[in-house]
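Replying to the earlier thread about multi-chain prediction with a worked example.

Input:
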Amino acid sequence: MREMPLSGHDLRDIIARWVEPSSVPASPRIVTDISDFFKVDYDDVVILDGRPYFMRNYEREGRFGIDEEPKFWVRRAIDLTDGSIKIIKMVFHEQFRAKVGNITFDCVRSPRKEAIILDMVKGHPNFMQGFSVCDPTGNIIRIIDFIKGKTLADHVLGLGENHEDYFHNFFPSVLGEYIDLVKAIRFLHERGEKHGDIRRDHIIKEKDTGLCRWIDFDFNFMHAGNMFGYDLFGLGNVLVYLTGRGDVTLQRLRKEESPVLDHLTADDMNIIFNNRLVNLNKVYPYIPDDLNVVLLHFSLGANAFYDDTDQLLTDLNEVREKISN
Amino acid sequence: MAADKMCFLDKNRHILIAVDESENAKRALLYVAEFLGGVPGFCVSILSVILEPPVDYFKTDEERTEWINRKKTEAAVMLDNYRRILVQSGFGENNIEPLVEVISCPSIADCILNKRQRLNCDTLVIGRRGISKKEEFLFGSTSSKIVHSARNCAVWVIE
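Result:
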C-alpha cells in the first residue's frame, strides 16, 4: 500500500464537507493499492482513477441459507468529489462449489464479468449503475451507485391486508415490475451474458424512482447444457415468491394446520427446493390458471421447462393481459 | 480436405457424431460403427466440443490457456481412439474426420447444431447422458435441446 503526498489537513477539510464533524478522522490514511481488501480500513481514503473515496462499513449479504454474511471486499464509501454514496467492490478471487438443492457446481466470483455487464447496462433502468477502474496493480474495482430502497421481496411483504387483497389490488402492478425485470435479463442473454445469481434479494426497489434494479452480477460458472438455465430457475423462484407474497413452505402450512396439506403431492413443490409450494392455486384458489400454469413450469411435476426468457415473457404477457381486464 | 467438401464431392451421406468423454457418447459411436461399418457411401465427422471457460473463470490467462490446451489434447486422444474404432468397423480412413472445437456458445447443443449446419450433415448422432430432471431443469439437456431444435436433418439419440 502506498502513501500519497497529500496534506492530512486538506483531506480532513474535504471529508468534513460530507460527514458530521465527529466522523472526520484525525489523520486519514490515503490508499491506492487495494489488492488486499482486509488492509483497507474504515476511515481510509482510497484513491481510484484519481478520485478519492472515504471508506465506510462493509456490506452484508445472506447466501446459501446463511444470513447476513459479511462481505469484507464490498464497502460503502463516500465519493469525496460530490458526496455521493458508492459501493466499492474490491477483488476477491473466490472459487467455491455452489449447492442448489442436492446439485452442486463450481462457481467463481468474477470482477471482469461484472465490469463488462456494468458497461453493457449503462443507463438501463433495471440494473444497478456504476463503472469499473483498475487499481495500480491491475485489480478490477467496481464503483457502484448506492441504491436507496428495500429489496423487492421485502417491499411486497408490506403490500395488502392479506394475500387476497394483495393479489387483487397490488399484484398486477408487481407483475408489471417483474416483467420488466425479466426483460432486463433477456437484455443480458441477448448479449451473451448471464446474471448468474438471480435471487429475490438481488432486486432493489429504488425508493426515489420506484424502479426495480438487479444487483450483483459477479457470479460465474461453467455451463454445459443451457447457459441461461440457472437464471431461469432464479426468475421462477422470484415469480413464485411474488405471487405468493412470500414463500409458502410446508413448514408454514403445517404451522397453520392448513387443510391444503391433505391435497398436496410432490409434484406441487419446487423442483429444487422441495419444501416450497409452487402450485399456489391450491392455497389461493383465486390465482388464475394461466398464471398457475406458468408457476408449474418450476415444479417437480413439470413436463416442460422454459428454455429462454422469451418463452417466459410470452406467457407472462398473456397473464398480465388477463388479470388487468 | 474438410469433411463437408469430401462428402459433398463423393456424394456420400454425411454423419456427424457429437461426443464427449462419457460412456453414452462412446455407445453412440459404437452404434454407428456397428450399424454402418463397411457400408459404402457414408462419411463421418466426430465432433468434440470444448466450451470456452467464462472470462476470469481461472485466476490467470496462463491457467486458462493451460486448461484449454489440456482439454484439446484429451479430446484429440479420444477422437483418435474413436477414429480407429470406425476404421476397424469398416469405414474408410478418408471418410472420417475428427473435429475438436473450442467455442463460446449459449449451450453445447447450440454449438453442435451450428456445426451440423455448417458441415451440412444429413444425420446427427448423440448419446443420452440420462441426467436427472433437476439437472435438466437447471442446466438443460443437450439431447433434449437437439431433438427439439434440430432442423433439416435426422437425429439419432443413442441410449
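Chain A is about 30% helix and 25% strand.

Feel free to reuse this layout for your own posts.
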